[in-house]
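User: My advisor, Dr. K., asked me to get a structural model of this assembly before our group meeting. I'm new to this, so sorry if the format is off. These are the inputs:
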Amino acid sequence: MEQILFYVFSGLAILSAIGLLVNVRNTVNAALSLVVCMLSLAVLFIMLHAEFVGVLQVMVYAGAIVVLFLFVVMLLNLRGGNMGAESQPVLKLVGGAVAVGATVKLATLLDRPLKPWADIDPEFGTVAHIGRVFYTDYMLAFQVAGVLLLAGIVAAVILAKREID
Amino acid sequence: MTHENEAIRLIPLFPLAAVVVSGLWLLFARGSMSRGAVIAIGCGAPILSFLVSLREVFQLTRLDEGQRFFVDNLYTWISADPFHAELSFLLDPLSAVMILVVTGVGSLIHIYSVGYMDDDHREDRGFQRFFLYLNLFTFSMLMLVLGDNLLVMFVGWEGVGLCSYLLIGFWYLEDHNAMCGQKAFLVNRIGDFGFLLGIFLLFWAFASVGSPTVEFHEMSANVGKLADTMVTLPPALSFLPAFPAWKLLTLACLCLFVGACGKSAQLPLYTWLPDAMAGPTPVSALIHAATMVTAGVYMVCRMSFAFSLAPGASATVAWVGGLTAVFAATIALTQKDIKKVLAYSTVSQLGYMFLAAGSMAYSAAVYHLATHAFFKALLFLGAGSVILGMHHEQDIDKMGGLRRRMRWTHRWFLCGVLAIAGVPFLSGFFSKDEVLLGAFAAHDLPGHMALYAIGVLTAGLTAFYMLRLHYRVFAGETRATPEVYNAVHESNRWVLMPLAVLAALSVGVWLLSPPDLWGELLFGGMRKSHSLHYFLQEAAFSAPHDVSHATELGLAALATLFALAGIAAASFLYYFKPEMVDRLTDRVRPVYDVLWNKYWVDEIYDFLIVRPLLWVSENVLYRLVDADLIDRIGVNGTARAVRGVANRGLKFLQTGFTQSYLVIMLIGALGIIAYMMRGAS
Amino acid sequence: MMPNLDLSAISPMIFVAVGAILLPLLEVLLARMIERRRSWLGRTVNREMASTAIVIFTVLLLVLALLRTVGTFDLPVAHFNLDHPMIAVDQLTRFLNAVLLISAILTVLVSSRYLADIGMDHGEFYALLLASLLGMMLLGAATDLIMLFLALELMSIPIYALAGFQRSSLKSNESALKYFIIGSFASALLLYGCALLYGATGTVELAEIARGFDPENPLTLLGAALVLVGFAFKIASVPFHQWAPDVYEGAPTTVTGFMATAVKVAAFGALIRVVAVGLQPGAEIMYGVFWWLAVLSMTVGNVMAIIQQNTKRMLAYSSVAHGGYMLVGICVGTQSGYAGLLFYLLVYTFMTIGAFTVLAILTRDGREVSRIDDLAGLHETHPFAAIVMTLCMFSLAGIPPLAGFWGKWYLLTGAVERATAIGDTSLIVLAVVLVMNSAISLAYYLRLPVVMYMREARGADRPDATAGALQTTVLWVCALAIVLIGVVPGDFLILFGDYDLIASARVAASAVSP
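Assistant: The format is fine. Below is the predicted structure of the whole assembly, which you can bring to the meeting.
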């Protein structure tokens, strides 16, 4: 059962990622493919017993980021013909070569036995566990992340606010 | 007993502070400071230095004999193992005499400058700028004499050279003055090059015997190890013909002496000093008579531990000094510019000092240096007063009879004239005798009797030309036009006061420390330790002489005879029978022309060195090497190549498109990944 | 279970964080007071008063942090969370923090007047600056990949916004956007690298990573390579430098000064720690990467700087080249190499801030003095600015006896020492390349003094400069620092307290190197 689910969702993820690329002229479709891709990944996470990450995947990527994309796409009202005005053949060529090269290199790397993963605590990755370490071991990181968010908000306000004075 | 004394640093600090304050003001403020402030800062600094110097020198005399020195170590200037140089000051008897002269005479000349520069309205901020330079000079000179090692000394050495250049060309709006400044600077560069070579050579030599140092005490302590080292060529230069067997110390000392020749205007590098008279007169008095030009003499005395082990170098010093003395004195016989006469006289007197130093009578050299500082400063300042009174006329053919219009200037000037002429019981008499005695007693010096004869002859010439100058300026009927003559006025108090002090010192400074012979004769049971000779022994050891007192008195009488003869001849020609001058001149026309044209040395240099050099530099170095090889092919070629690469290649990549930047970054990243993973299994 | 926390260890960072959090509130408060015409101390609150208050508050916090940092320099290493230290407050951290704080203080002092000149006098500027500064301070201290990444982002995001702070200027907007996009790309690579390292070694702590580092394992190497790429971007090393000229040119001038100095300081600090601690077992493999990055950065940076007409672009390429010089210190990889690098960072901060300050005071009514030729005749209109600019240029070129010369000197001696110790000629080649590049750099550094002093100002285009008191102070500080660090050797600095800068740098470097 798990095997079947795994192949279904990983296949879905790959397909939707390809769909994202193919749909480059239709941005709304591309964004929706991205949602499918993210949701499939979320399922994979949950199957790995990383529920917290799975939920975050749904909330942050599928929820916040892709919705933001869609808003932008709709607000800008992009149509097919507008894209690719700066299309650069050299860049495409180089980009393609880079992509192929990277894939080949990664493939050769994966084609060898990897070390077995260490066993982990069954509590690892649960919300309770994550909450606890946030307030003890990762106290500083947690606080810093807070300041980072504040700075992000201030930055967004200062850049985006229509009238400053 | 500690020799640390942190008060020494105050001595150069005061003028430095004045320079900083005044310099910052000139840099950032629009106008000049008020006149009062300029005077207070400009004159206050050297006076304060003088007071501190007095106090510290007094402290120095109270130390035990043989242990008389103070060291003030500010900080480690250069620390590059194994070489260390401290920025530190050394006050020993030698530098004590020097700082008293520099700050004492310096203060008087600063005060005098207030009166002298007052009528100068060529530039609004000139007054302040002038004092700024003077203070900078005082600071540099103090660094030179107080420096505890050759490097600090060299800093001061270059500093005074710079100030000399700035002050000779002080009225730079006239091209001639600026040219004279450049000439002084360039000729000095030749000397400085020698000095630097000497420093390097000495450092290298001391390093090779295991004590890499340029500090005076350490060098003095270790110099014995070098006494027998000969010059050897490095293996790489073995193809050169055999080098004459010279002692290393001789070579190093000769290099140092080249530096001294430049700074102290000796043959063959003296030509800049007469031209340096283009500067304001107080500058001539301070820099080109009393202090800076004596730096070469000071340096030879300071390095006496090396020179005394290098008899060849010492003989060179003595002969160059002696020849310069008589050479310059003959030129001074005919000159008509009041300051030029004094300038050649200075060159001649500096030659005297080197004559003494080369005879290893270092204390005599320093003694003459000190007395000369007083009377030559007096003469220059007196000449300055005359120039002021005559509204910047310097030709003595257009003077005469000024005695009646400038009474005080005349009196003080006469004191200086008599002192330099060697009239008995004025300071010049004693110091000159010491110099001549040194030459007479230097048995190891080849031709020391000839040098002695030259010295005596020069004494006579000196008396002659100084009296000639005096009569032409002050005595007889005036040759100035009536309007000019009637407008001549006595100078103001700022000018006269320093003259009076210097006149008193010129007459009586010897009383502070008469030579041994005269101390005994005149003051009977005076303690020997009061003589300068004795005081200086531990800083610059002079060989004791074996001349009996009777011989010494005879020598003094002979020199006096020559001096009096010179005075008599000048009085006869220029006071009693002035009409004979022209006839006599006509009689010896060829000789007169040679002297009047200063042996055509400037022209010879111009023909032999300057023109060929200019030709080579214009046609070979500039056109071929610089313009073609370096500029066109080297610099511009490289620049063009670089620009070409940048413009055609690299700039093309800098498209401004974010995407292309990302692609290049990605390529770079892949490159790094590929490089790092090449070793992965 | 309460965590075992030591707040005093990070007190300088707390000062900065407090500022970053309180300043937006203060700004809002003051804006309301202005709106409602409230009076304070008998005067109606206006914009100038508000900015003065904000600047005083900011500088006060920064100075307190600086004093605290310098005061605790000699203390042993401290940790915030003793059970799980994510940062180490050791001498390296304190040295970096001091330099960062100096850079920030100088930037704040220059900015108040500059922001008013470009019409963007808002308190948020300082809030963002402090947030970024906090990120930088943590970045240099991070001993943990999570902290490293968080600090990097905390440093970068406010800087992106600051680059676009001059909203009326298109170039400023472009600058922010470019920096953001490329920065995100680099961050992603770095994060990927961190993840791979975690995957390969099973830990995020640098010391543990070193223990589990297997130079044969492709995952480890890939992770290390990507981390290096991320850093190479932050220090603008060739070929990850192309954003720098565009971003430097567009960003408000004082921000450029801050970016050029503080970002470099923090990134190099973190790079030292990562290379010397976490990736130490891979040092030999990484050496080639750094070698090439250094050579390329020096050469391309200097060559490109020659053809620039815009002063800020020229300084941007110059900063690329200086990044290359500093990478030599990383290549050397010994205590003296790192010490030379740290010392260089310090002097580089003064020279660069000095140069950008001169450019900042030349800005009038939002119009920048962009072209090099626009500086013609500056010595007449503002002689002091011309002097400081000349000093900065000479120092950047490494002309003795200014500070920049000693920076290069310590890097070179480090390289030569190491090369002779291990008999490696490639380090000597690197030193030669450095010297040759210094010579090339003269071509553009000397151009500014030539233009300022020897060319006549053109009529109405004379550079008009009237610096505010705070800006003049900054010019003085930079000029004095350049001259004093250069002319006056270590011993003499004792007069100003017991701070021998190169010795401090050595102590700092010894915190991470064997």
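One thing worth pointing out at the meeting: Residues 491-498 of chain C have pLDDT under 50 and may be disordered.

User: Perfect, thanks a lot.
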